Amino acid sequence: MTVELTWHGHSTWHVSVDDTDLLIDPFFDNPHTDLDPSDVETPDYLLLTHGHADHIAHAPEFSDATLVATPEIVSYAQAELGFEDAIGMNLGGTVECGDAFVTMVRADHTNGINTEHEYEGGMPAGFVIGDTKPTQATDEESTTFYHAGDTSLMTEMREVTGAYLEPDAAAVPVGDHFTMGPWQAAVAVDWLDVDHAFPMHYDTFPPVEIEIDDWVREVKATGSTAEPHVLEGDETFEL
């Protein structure tokens, strides 16, 4: 199967697995994209890592998609954002989404939803998206992408995600302040043992402005064999 990755800035990714389209964390108010949410075709599935505004701001624009998120985010989105079809899942679970298999993994972060209703977001998450269901047996034919969500560096990347889910490519937050910065994100890439690495969650607003070349240099300094790719906004990469 073909897996295509398109970065729309910040943590917003469009992932195509054969004939299935998935959109992650829609937030188009960022300087890396020229697109308005209305320019983007509604995907089959909308995945939300957590409830912060810079990850769910444009979710209502895609309410015709099937939502995939924690039960807490699903409850909020169905009550407040217009979603009807949804798959509530939790950390460690895998669900089949058309031609894709989506596994929810841990992210070390916070997860409040800033509304007057005081919704809880549950645990923040990342997603591992592949064209086969993960098993303990290594599948050389599978293609898998890891979206780390908003997270700090955590040994689960080395001990679980990299070791058993075996992503071929990973998008990691690099902007510092709210997530990992360049050097920790580079260590994450090394621990994940991926072939391709992409930065995200940077240069959107002042606290997360960095020199992206610092991350590229740090990845190489770890001795990782991963190829760092700094995509332009709305650029597509095929695995």
Question: Keyphrases for this structure?
Answer:
about 240 residues; alpha/beta; Metallo-beta-lactamase, Chain A; seven-stranded mixed β-sheet; 14 strands; about 20% helix; about 25% strand; globular
Walk me through what this model shows.
The chain is α/β, with parallel strands linked by helices and 239 residues long. It has a single domain (3-226), classed as Ribonuclease Z/Hydroxyacylglutathione hydrolase-like (Metallo-beta-lactamase, Chain A, 4-Layer Sandwich), CATH 3.60.15. It is 19% helix and 26% strand. It is built from five helices and 14 strands. It has a seven-stranded mixed sheet with strand order 6-5-4-3-2-1-14, covered by helices on one side. Strands 7-8-9-10-11-12-13 form a seven-stranded mixed sheet. Strand 4, helix 1 (53-56) and strand 5 form a beta-alpha-beta unit. Helix 3 (156-165) packs parallel to helix 4 (182-192) and helix 4 (182-192) crosses helix 5 (212-221). The protein is globular. The termini are close together. The relative contact order is 0.16. The model has no long low-confidence stretch (mean pLDDT 96).
